[in-house]
Design brief:
This protein is 40% helix and 11% strand. The protein is an alpha/beta fold. Helix 6 runs antiparallel to helix 15, helix 8 packs across helix 10 and helix 12 packs parallel to helix 13. The longest helix has 37 residues.
């Protein structure tokens, strides 16, 4: 292999500090975290640390085939009670052979291994068994939730005395709250009479957003074909502000209410980042022009990208962590973009993604706690609860009637033990891997890295048949031509067949990449039509992944 250019090299000081962080917080070391010495946990951990590919883990597990058959066949609850010290082999088997995100090769999606302190914190949350929906059922667990909310508010630039938040079940629920906040503020009668009562409305989101941006609207009963406006995206997969202004102006000209504008900061496959400040500027200017008093609620789906806020106050000039020069400029750009989160009315935080906390741990942050009043239901509906202590939680405003606290305990433990500096190291390590992977891919003939300007953890690429494609850049440009060109679809289909077959034949070597059906989006034709381009992706979030796995993948890229 050719020598690594200096700008991609990992600084020895960075490597030493990072290895210490990894050994303390990601190795399931019973010396640091005695809970992992439990015999059943130790057995599961030992199996998962073998890091064998999926097809070999089953054959390597003692009695694996028989246990799998048993797992698929059992359909009766045991008649007798089991002894406390008896370890159920099926329970251990299912845990040991569940998806192994501790494997350094696991880069399929925006999921990563949880940290040791977050696992222990989550266990304590399970033990406490608090229901956050009502302070009487949670007691001090609600205080811990408010503590984490204040911490994230400070990191993001919200006023912690005015902001609030709700821990809930995943980023989809957070985004559902984001839609609801806008709907209930702009269309207050919708709570009792439904969305079709009163003024006409349109919900705005991006064509580059997560699929939950649409499924949530369907869940809410929104007419997807007539009441939703999907804004065009630019070459970097961020929302096009020109198209947004055109669509928002048209709505206001027709006296059409826009309850919510949904943005994304860190798209799943390409880490496209919508800028909040231009959207706020457009919204405020047009609201003033048309006399709109209830401004559209701006919610940001930052489920993936939110950890970039840890770099808000990093000294990029001094670079005390010694982050390499291939990574530093992109990281600095993202830090500048994520400073704009403070302007959003609400945003999504998934601790169980790049926050290294077990599933599920998600938080919707709300800049002005007064916004939650719009979600309140009539107190007369809450006859189960003591009226004297109502108002000490978000009882009347939450979707859930059961809201567990395990996500809070896990998030707090991770934030407490890793700290700002630890999270910075984890993010920088991931982005250095992603930068190196882009560099190595670019050196392979017939490979095109899509959206290379998005310097996030997600790396998408296309592989072409070098016997028929001499220039990958030129070929990709032809695929990205407007979809009404007669040769475009045939070209894409031909290249897809080659790459898909290569992906299947190669198998899992070095990195367990993933195939996705929408890696890039073509230019728009005259009617606004476009086509999606599939491809392969890797997401570098794991603290265990390094250059060794990347080099092994590149060496076997074409099988």
């Amino acid at each position: 292999m050719a020598q690594i250019p200096d700008r991609f090299r990992t600084d020895p000081a960075f490597a030493a500090r990072f290895e210490q962080l990894r050994s303390q917080f990601f190795m399931r070391n019973a010396g640091h975290w005695p809970v992992f010495a439990d015999p059943m946990l130790a057995q599961v951990i030992a199996q998962r640390q073998q890091h064998a590919p999926r097809d070999r883990r089953l054959s390597g597990y003692p009695g694996g085939e028989q246990l799998l058959q048993q797992l698929r066949a059992v359909d009766r609850v045991p008649a007798d009670s089991a002894q406390p010290d008896s370890h159920d082999p099926l329970l251990v088997f299912a845990a040991a052979l569940s998806k192994n995100w501790e494997d350094p090769a696991s880069v399929e999606n925006v999921v990563t291994t949880p940290s040791d302190p977050a696992i222990v914190g989550t266990m304590l949350g399970v033990l406490a068994n608090a229901n956050l929906v009502y302070s009487e059922y949670a007691e001090l667990a609600t205080e811990l939730e408010e503590l984490v909310i204040r911490q994230i508010a400070n990191l993001a630039g919200y006023d912690p005395t005015k902001a609030t938040g709700i821990f809930t079940q995943g980023g989809t629920f957070c985004n559902l709250y984001g839609y609801l906040l806008g709907i209930r503020k702009s269309l207050p009668l919708s709570r009792e009479y439904g969305l079709e009562h009163g003024q006409d409305y349109r919900i705005i989101n991006s064509q580059g957003g997560h699929y939950s941006n649409i499924t949530n609207l369907s869940l809410l009963g929104v007419n997807l074909r007539r009441k939703t406006i999907r804004i065009h995206i630019n070459a970097d997969n961020a929302m096009d502000p020109v198209d947004l202004e055109r669509q928002l102006r048209a709505c206001f000209q027709l006296n059409c209410v826009v309850p919510t504008i949904m943005l994304t900061m860190g798209t799943t496959d390409t880490f496209g980042v919508d800028q909040v400040e231009p959207v706020v500027t457009i919204r405020d200017r047009l609201c003033d022009e048309f006399g709109v008093t209830m401004k559209p609620h701006i919610h940001v789906d930052s489920a993936i990208g939110w950890p970039m806020i840890f770099f808000q106050y990093y000294d990029f000039a001094a670079n005390p962590l010694r982050i390499n020069q291939a990574t530093l400029p992109g990281l600095r750009r993202h830090a500048d973009l994520f400073r704009q989160l403070r302007l959003a009315d609400s945003f999504t935080v998934d601790f169980h993604k790049w926050g290294h906390v077990p599933y599920t741990s998600s938080l919707i942050m709300i800049r002005d706690s007064a916004d939650l009043r719009a979600l309140e239901h009539d107190p007369e509906n809450f006859s189960y609860f003591d009226k004297d202590i109502e108002g000490h939680s978000h009882l009347h405003s939450t979707i859930e009637c059961s809201r567990g606290a395990t996500g809070v305990f896990g998030a707090y433990a991770a934030l407490h033990h890793l700290g700002v500096d630890g999270y910075r190291q984890l993010i920088a390590h991931a982005l250095q891997n992603a930068a190196y992977f882009r560099y190595r891919l670019a050196s392979v003939p017939g490979v095109k890295v899509t959206v290379p300007q998005n310097q996030g953890p997600s790396v998408g690429f296309r592989v072409y048949d070098s016997t028929s494609v001499s220039d990958a850049e030129a070929e990709f440009a032809k695929e990205m031509a407007p979809g009404d060109h007669p040769d475009t679809k045939a070209r894409i289909d031909r290249n897809n067949r080659y790459h898909r077959e290569l992906f299947r034949r190669r198998g899992k070597i070095g990195l367990y990449t993933n195939w996705i059906e929408s890696l890039a989006q073509s230019a728009y034709d005259q009617r606004g039509g476009y086509h999606r381009i599939p491809g392969e992706k890797a997401v570098f979030m794991s603290p265990h992944t390094g250059y060794e796995q990347i080099d092994a993948f590149i060496a076997n890229l074409r099988g």
